[in-house]
Q: What sequence folds into this?
């Protein structure tokens, strides 16, 4: 192949396709999210522009484009402009690394350390928020940026650790191989239930979504890191939030939900079945993949509508005292079970027992942890304190008085 | 034109390498610490790109993950927390200029000599060595007359980067690796112990209740541990 074609033109085409898909989904998602939130909060949401308010997708960018672009006079000019652009680039790049249909046609780029590269690139998206907050020269922005830095660094750890269990099961960093493993066995969601839970929570934290939106916390920090941003620069921040939602959903689909396949134990819609249908099969695979991704995006919105924002120390507690130990325990248990399966010479046909054991252990651990978290305090410290019996006034007595 | 197109990797290397060197010079030349940190970030990313271009995908990805994603964020966090807007301008020359240049040149010559003729020469020209590992397996062989025998086989084969790094760390150099990680753990705990301090009377009045409560709990735990 012509080297210019190989090194310049082809990557550009791939990148352009990725940007188009990301922007389309993101635009649609803004509307879906607002309507859905309206539905969940017993109100209407945007329904004026076009049928069901669908043209809001176009109206919003036009409004933002035509707004005056204000830059604070004391802002750090170059960094201020750079801030909103930085987080978009890793989101687009990561999207290029995700296989959204059977390879080779739908796996845009295959790198043998694909997953590691994806995690590495997503971890750089925090710079946009930190730098934007700093360059605005505004104390609320700066505090938003600082919070974001602390939050991202903390949740990067459980995010990475939760993937390790999947890697141990599938034995590869290559997303295509991970998906093919899942179609032969079962969705990783089941044997790696704890990991999937941690992954979902920390991916919410990574994309600054509502229970974790302390960097922009409008009730305390005006609008946090984007207080001083207006017009299209502000839109870029919004865009990158939704793009990271999309990318994280794609990642979760590939890691835990079987990617483009719909099969258990090698039966069902497998890669081979899709391949035999040619291009149509590829399109069906991509449709399955994006169906799963969109479901996850809706769960994202649901999550946002359900939970109130954390206090900062609660956020740090959850990250360091619950998520990280839980993720480490998950790695440990997974390792032991894989080793046990290897030693007991459990063959391919009885492999189910290992996965079943992992699923049950995972479900039990998750239930127990959720129980502990919702109790508020670790059990040991509660027991260490002298407890007085609470004064209970029976409801019937209250009504008598 | 043909020689140029055939050398696209070389061209890419020159571009990325130039950016890496230029931005690493700018790290020390900038007077604003945040700008310095940003150029350091560019340097890290360029170095990661060089790793990937040499076929060391794993090291490249880890470089981005650890340095760009973790360490630089913490750098920026600290710089922004202290909020130093600009450092005083200093003279670019110093009485040590000539000596410094001499030492720099000497180190450059040393490295150039090693890379050109030394022990690393083969590796430099064979990126696939980064991807090879050996496995020890027991194979079952069925002979023509139906008897079954097992034999021990050592296989050198080309695998992904991550497998090669993994087998180096966890098989060939397991003990040094574990010792090093133990040292890191000790250093980390030491840093936390040094970083912790008691609150002053004023702080004790001003900190929110939930923090005080937690500190009490921690004191309880300490008592129990000491007793």
A:
């Amino acid at each position: 192949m012509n080297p210019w074609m190989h090194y310049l033109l082809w990557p550009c085409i791939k990148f352009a396709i990725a940007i188009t898909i990301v922007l389309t989904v993101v635009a649609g998602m803004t509307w879906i999210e607002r309507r859905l939130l309206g539905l969940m909060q017993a109100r209407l949401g945007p329904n004026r522009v076009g049928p069901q308010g669908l043209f809001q997708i176009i109206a919003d960018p036009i409004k933002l484009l035509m707004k005056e672009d204000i830059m604070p006079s004391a802002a750090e000019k170059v960094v201020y402009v750079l801030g909103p652009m930085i987080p978009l680039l890793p989101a687009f790049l990561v999207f290029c690394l995700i296989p959204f249909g059977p390879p080779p046609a739908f796996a845009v780029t295959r790198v043998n350390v694909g997953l590691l590269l994806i995690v590495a690139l997503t971890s750089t998206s925090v710079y946009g928020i930190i730098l934007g907050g700093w360059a605005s020269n505004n104390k609320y922005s700066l505090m938003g940026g600082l919070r974001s830095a602390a939050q991202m660094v903390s949740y990067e750890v459980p995010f990475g650790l939760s993937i390790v269990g999947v890697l141990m099961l599938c034995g590869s960093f290559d997303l295509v191989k991970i998906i093919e493993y899942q179609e032969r066995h079962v969705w990783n969601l089941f044997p790696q239930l704890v990991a999937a839970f941690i992954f979902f929570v920390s991916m919410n934290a990574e994309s600054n979504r509502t229970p974790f939106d302390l960097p922009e916390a409008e009730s305390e920090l005006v609008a946090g890191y984007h207080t001083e941003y207006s017009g299209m620069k502000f839109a870029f921040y919004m865009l990158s939030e939704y793009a990271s939602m999309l990318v994280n959903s794609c990642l979760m689909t590939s890691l835990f939900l079987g990617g483009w396949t719909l099969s258990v134990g090698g039966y069902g819609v497998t890669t081979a079945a899709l391949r035999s249908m040619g291009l149509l099969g590829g399109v069906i695979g991509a449709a399955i993949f994006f169906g799963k991704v969109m479901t996850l995006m809706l769960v994202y919105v649901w999550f946002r509508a359900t939970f109130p924002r954390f206090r900062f120390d609660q956020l740090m507690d959850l990250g360091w005292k619950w998520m990280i130990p839980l993720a480490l325990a998950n790695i440990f248990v997974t390792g032991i079970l894989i080793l046990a399966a290897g030693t007991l010479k459990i063959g391919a046909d009885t492999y189910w027992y290992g996965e079943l054991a992992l699923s049950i252990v995972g479900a039990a651990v998750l239930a127990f942890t959720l129980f502990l978290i919702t109790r508020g305090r670790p059990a040991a410290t509660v027991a260490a304190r002298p407890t007085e019996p609470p004064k209970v006034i029976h409801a019937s007595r209250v009504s008598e008085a | 034109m043909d020689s140029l197109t055939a050398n696209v990797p070389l061209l890419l290397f020159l571009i990325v390498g130039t950016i890496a060197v230029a931005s690493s010079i700018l790290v020390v030349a900038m007077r604003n610490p945040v700008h310095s940190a940003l150029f350091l970030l560019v340097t890290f990313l360029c170095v990661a790109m060089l790793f990937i271009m040499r076929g060391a995908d794993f090291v490249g990805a880890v470089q981005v993950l650890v340095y760009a994603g973790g360490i630089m964020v913490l750098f920026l966090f600290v710089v922004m927390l202290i909020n130093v807007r600009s450092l005083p301008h200093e003279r670019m020359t110093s009485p040590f200029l000539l000596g410094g240049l001499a030492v720099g040149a000497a180190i450059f010559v040393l490295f150039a000599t090693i890379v050109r003729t030394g022990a690393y020469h083969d590796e430099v020209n064979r990126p696939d060595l980064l991807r090879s590992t050996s496995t020890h397996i027991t194979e079952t062989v069925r002979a023509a007359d139906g008897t079954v025998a097992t034999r021990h086989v050592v296989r050198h084969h080309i695998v992904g980067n991550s497998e090669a790094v993994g087998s180096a760390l966890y098989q060939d150099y397991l003990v040094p690796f574990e010792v090093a990680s133990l040292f890191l753990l000790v250093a980390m705990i030491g840093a936390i112990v040094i970083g912790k301090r008691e609150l002053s009377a004023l702080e004790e009045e001003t900190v929110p209740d939930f923090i005080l409560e937690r500190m009490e709990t921690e004191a309880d735990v300490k008592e129990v541990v000491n007793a």
In short: The radius of gyration of chain B is 27 Å. The CA atoms of residues 37 and 76 of chain B lie 7 Å apart.
